[in-house]
Specification:
heterodimer; A: alpha+beta; Immunoglobulin-like; six-stranded mixed β-sheet; three-stranded antiparallel β-sheet; 2 helices; B: Rossmann fold; Penicillin-binding protein activator LpoB (chain B); signal (chain B)
């Protein structure tokens, strides 16, 4: 009986291990969690708005909820009204070292006034596949 | 005693073996994926460092409101001197060009290529006026040049400081310092500094 259960569970375990852990937070649909990030990153708030100069800006307040130091990797992607991605120097992976239980603030500004929406990809730098794969929208 | 191979065959085999061994020892050339976690880190300044300094400068500059205008006009920026006070031979355009691209993209700042400390950046701005003298050029196709004077100037400095931490390690610090001057009043309306610090082997060089 034990053998049967183990045989049934093994493929499920393997499948779970193989899948790319890309999770979109239900509370914050703009945030896309890559492998590992969900396990230590707790989002406190996400604020967005426009500067006086009509540029979209985003502020993420979070905390490293784990009891060990982590390196968070993040990337902002900006989109225009038609949904096309806007080229920007800020659309690059950046790293942030965080101490256990340390609060984190990430502020970014879209450099183009055409930016009306965004996505933020978050991942653990030391996870095997730190960059979320697949459809980035 | 007869050998298995002739002398010529032995030479060919030896040469082939040498080439195979040599090619096996050569590090393989490979493309670096932008943002890859295994991107090599050097003690000197790399493209990643220039990107970081540029992002920091542009984010700070645009969020400061220093280039916001209410009259619908754009600021015209001239690139003043960007001093390389490091031990490395670097082209400061690696920093400045990225900043220029992002500021142009913001729709708030345009950079003049006709005016500069060492003359026009794009020399065609100056040479164009000589076309009037040429018989090969249809004069009706010539446009009257009227350069827009800059109202802002970007200047800065890249500094390097090396410090020995212990017998084995050294700390190399770089500072990217930039100032944006309002040319009407001669006042710095924005200033930014991005420090980049690296610690590594004392035997390594940072130039």
């Amino acid at each position: 009986m034990k053998k049967l259960i183990l045989t049934a569970l093994l493929p499920l375990t393997l499948l779970a291990g193989c899948q790319t852990q890309q999770v979109r937070s239900p509370d914050y649909p703009q945030l896309v969690f890559g492998q590992g990030a969900k396990s230590f990153l707790a989002i406190d708030s996400l604020t967005d708005g426009y500067t006086e100069g009509h540029l979209l800006r985003v502020s993420i307040q979070a905390v490293n909820a784990s009891s060990s130091s982590k390196t968070l990797r993040y990337k902002f992607t900006w989109f225009d009204e038609a949904g096309f991605e806007i080229n920007s120097l800020t659309s690059r992976w950046e790293a942030l070292e965080t101490a256990p239980h340390e609060p984190i603030t990430i502020n970014r500004l879209a450099t183009s006034p055409k930016a009306v929406s965004y996505k933020v990809f978050l991942s653990d730098a030391h996870a095997q596949s730190p960059q979320p794969q697949g459809n980035n929208r | 005693m007869r050998t298995l191979f002739s002398a010529q065959t032995t030479k060919v085999i030896a040469l082939s073996a040498f080439v195979l061994i040599a090619s096996g020892c050569t590090p393989k050339t490979q493309m670096l994926t932008p943002g890859a976690t295994d991107e090599p880190i050097t003690m000197g300044l790399s493209a990643k460092d220039f990107e970081q300094a540029s992002v920091d400068a542009v984010q700070s500059l645009l969020s400061s409101g220093a280039v916001d205008r209410n009259d619908g006009k754009k600021n015209i920026m001239v690139i003043s001197s960007i001093i390389n006070d490091t031990m490395q031979r670097i082209d400061t355009d690696q920093l400045v060009k990225k900043i220029r691209i992002e500021l142009l993209r913001s729709g708030k700042v345009m950079t003049t290529t006709a005016i500069g400390l060492n003359g026009a950046e794009d020399q065609m701005n100056s040479v164009y006026s000589e076309l009037r003298e040429s018989r090969k050029v249809d004069r009706n196709s010539l446009v009257k040049q009227s350069f827009t004077a800059p109202n802002m100037s970007l200047s800065g400095k890249i500094i390097q400081r090396n410090n020995r931490v212990d017998d084995d390690r050294q700390l190399v610090e770089y500072y990217f310092q930039l100032s944006l001057t309002d040319l009407k009043h001669g006042l710095a309306v924005w200033e930014g500094e991005t420090p980049i610090r690296k610690i590594g082997s004392a035997k390594g060089t940072s130039w």
